[in-house]
Write a structure and sequence with these properties.
The structure is a homodimer of 370-residue chains. By secondary structure, chain A is of the alpha/beta class. In chain A, 30% of the residues lie in helices and 24% in strands. In chain A, strands 1, 10, 11, 12, 13, 14, 15, 16 and 17 form a nine-stranded mixed beta sheet that branches. In chain A, helix 7 links the parallel strand 7 and strand 8. In chain A, 58% of the residues are buried. Chains A and B meet through helix 3 and strand 10 of A and helix 3 and strand 10 of B.
């Protein structure tokens, strides 16, 4: 029900709280990531789970360094939105379990190339039976656990055993391996490289073991936004699946300043109360700007610092002269620490350039938890 | 895009992650709150900002102890949804600032009795001008700051000065005072009473000052879910505005166990991976079950404990024999610590009774941050 601003509207006339996207920064981030992979064997298959936007996915999968029209999705409902938006190659990074979702996966596999992710024989059996029933051939990746203690089989023999089961299953085609080394918030590049390479080496060793057993491995995927230019240069890795780089966010610039990207995501808010000379209250709370990874930073004006967010209010300390001049109705632009839960609080991005509205990107996969 | 279960569906057949509402508990909570006020001068004007549901609001404002068809809203977009759902008396608990929102408030005041909340002369001037332009008479409450350092004028003379400005403003009718004493998570009832009463006394003293100045005070509102039965018994308070009591939540039962309500909110999730004998991974992350106030608790089965939530995954430790028997596809029911950000992650509540689906409540004010 938010007022949708017309293109050309000055940013200070946008109703609040609003999710604002600096288009210059977004384009810079996509350029940095994809140009790096233009002349490399590794390609980028971006994760869409954080931005939830086919508009942004379209900017990613049409780049030279990308798997053409390829994306990575966490949820089947998210993948459905992206295929509707033009995706042709969908790699899942979460196991699809249970009949309702497996049936939707089969339906999707009739319209796009789908790579399902498995780590358990029961799931392989269910996928094979469904693929036969729906008469589709399904690409399968085995998830390898390489250090974050979440899903995945152990590297080595356990992985080989699982792949052997995949290869014996009707209508499933083993395509390769997938792993997630985690968000490595290690400021020093060399230290970050050591940890990332040590983890990712486990998937490469497993690749070697499979090949020694005459099992071809077409896809070998790992590599997040925190170590894109580390994992993305490792021989044997065929594609990386970073997600956060497009919007980027304050926690990254704080924790790994050398990463090459610029935060593009903002939350615009309005001063609704100035009860004392050192305190402003605005209409942004943690329902519209998440605090999962910390308090947002103030992008402009200067002289302000976020003191706390309540569910519907932001309390902002006045610490400098520009802050003192703010009046009721004035706007403040915040940079969130974390995009994942901030994005899904909103129905749309308001894309701005030179402080004017240029584009509206609906967040079509908002709420796609399924 | 989630599968919407038909009434009668067993809870274990609901697709996940889903927001589930135990209707027996919801009705218990509403009964406890409202029966307490049936024969008291104080009435309940429930806050809708956490549940966002006209279905639940309808269960509240039709009770004997309620302000009839009366609600309290944080945001104008939320109030619009509630008026569409049948609300007749809307009390705002956030200042409405800036022309786009003030105009919507005037529009709303043509369809329902609206009480706007003010703490600044500039806002009073803007509301008065708009009320004249739209030819509406607008009820006004002055917000008094009583101890949470957010919005509001100071009690006493500062409040009197503000009320004098309201009373001189065309098309505005001063109706009374509003304050928020905060969520008082103090386990001991006596200690909680001392703090609540000390804070709320400031608004009552201000009421007295206004009446000494021949200014009638029709409404005097305070009192949240944490101190409903404390503030709700204070002479001079006319209405309380609790919100969390209807759904309730784990953080309350943990922090103030004597409060009388039962958590009604749940998040249902599915086991998607069991990589080791002591770890399950499910399809719930903090995008579908917020961790703003801590990790969710496991409602059933027994033998499990939430280890952590990532954005799209839940990692659950197996700590007992029932947990060991879980297989891929099995369901786990969680109780979130906090309703505010968990509710708005979803499009609907799935109301259950005796473990079967009974009602679907769309979360129509989801995303109503404006």
């Amino acid at each position: 029900m938010q007022f949708i601003p017309r293109p050309g509207t000055p940013v200070t006339d946008i109703d609040t709280p609003s999710l604002v996207l600096e288009l210059d920064h977004l384009e810079h981030n996509i350029e940095v990531m994809h140009s790096f992979f233009q002349n490399r064997p590794q390609k980028v298959r971006s994760v869409t789970k954080s931005h939830k936007s086919p508009d942004i996915a379209n900017l990613q999968w049409t780049q030279d360094g990308a798997v053409p029209y390829g994306i990575t999705c966490a949820k089947i409902s998210e993948a459905e939105v992206m295929v509707a938006g033009g995706a042709k190659q969908v790699r899942m990074i979460e196991q699809v379990v249970g009949s309702p979702k497996i049936e939707r996966l089969m339906s999707l596999a009739k319209r796009a190339e789908v790579l399902a992710l498995v780590d358990h024989p029961e799931n392989i059996k269910a996928l094979s039976e469904a693929a036969q029933a729906f008469n589709v051939k399904l690409g399968i990746l085995a998830e390898i656990e390489i250090g974050i203690n979440r899903c995945g089989v152990q590297p080595g023999q356990e992985a080989l055993d699982l792949v052997n089961i995949i290869n014996k299953s009707k209508n499933l085609e083993f395509k390769g391996l997938s792993a997630h080394e985690g968000s490595l918030f290690i400021a020093d590049f060399e230290q970050r490289s050591i940890v990332a390479k040590e983890r990712v080496q486990k998937i490469l060793d497993t690749r070697e073991l499979l090949e020694q057993n005459d099992i071809p491995v077409e896809i070998c995927g790992a590599g997040s936004t925190s170590c894109w230019n580390i994992v993305g240069t490792m021989d044997g890795i065929t594609e990386i699946d970073p997600g956060s780089y497009a919007l980027y966010e304050a926690q990254y610039t704080r924790l790994i300043p050398d990463n090459g990207f610029i935060p593009a995501l903002r939350v615009l808010t309005t001063v609704i109360s100035k009860p004392t000379t050192d305190r402003l209250v605005t209409d942004v709370g943690f329902k519209s700007c998440s605090i999962d990874k910390g308090l947002p930073e103030v992008d402009w004006p200067s002289g302000l610092k976020v003191n706390r967010l309540n569910s519907e209010h932001g309390v902002i300390d006045i610490i400098g002269s520009e802050g003192k001049q703010l009046r009721l109705g004035d706007k403040i632009m915040l940079t969130p620490q974390y995009q994942g839960t901030t994005v899904v609080a909103h129905e749309r991005y308001i894309g701005i350039r030179n402080n004017k509205v240029e584009a509206i990107f609906p967040i079509l996969a908002r709420g796609a938890h399924y």
